[in-house]
Amino acid sequence: MVFPPPLKEFIKFDKVVLYDFLVDRKPRYEIYFKKMKEQMIDGEIFMLLNKQNLKDFPFRFPDGFILLIEDLIKKFKSQEGGKESYKTYVAKATAQYKIIK
């Protein structure tokens, strides 16, 4: 699998596939990835995580791990066309679920 995989594929990862993907690349952080899996974080939700989410309950992750997650999210969003694709995805999801910004 290409790293990072295309964003449109990544957001389809369920919680188990996401967990396996992350542990395969960063095994020393398995305990944190397990907590994400327990909280039902899949590829779609992962892309919506931010520093505050990761610092607060139920995660309460250390700053170093938060930086790692933020960097991975940034890599996905900066893929060629990824940023536009992500913006388009958010716009579609917002419209589909009638989320008011």
In short:
With 101 residues, the protein is mainly alpha-helical.
What can you see in these coordinates?
The protein has 101 residues and is an all-alpha fold. The chain has one domain (7-96): Transcription Factor, Ets-1 (DNA polymerase, domain 1), CATH 1.10.150. The protein has seven helices and no strands.
List its traits.
single chain; mainly alpha; DNA polymerase, domain 1; 7 helices
Element layout with pairings:
Blueprint: H1 7-10, H2 15-25, H3 30-38, H4 43-46, H5 51-55, H6 63-77, H7 82-96
| CATH architecture assignment | Orthogonal Bundle
How helical, in percent, are the residues? 55-70%
The CATH homologous superfamily is named Transcription Factor, Ets-1
Shape estimate? globular
Question: How many discrete domains?
Answer: 1
The gyration radius over C-alpha positions equals: 14 Å
Class computed from helices, strands and strand pairing: mainly alpha
CATH topology tier name: DNA polymerase, domain 1
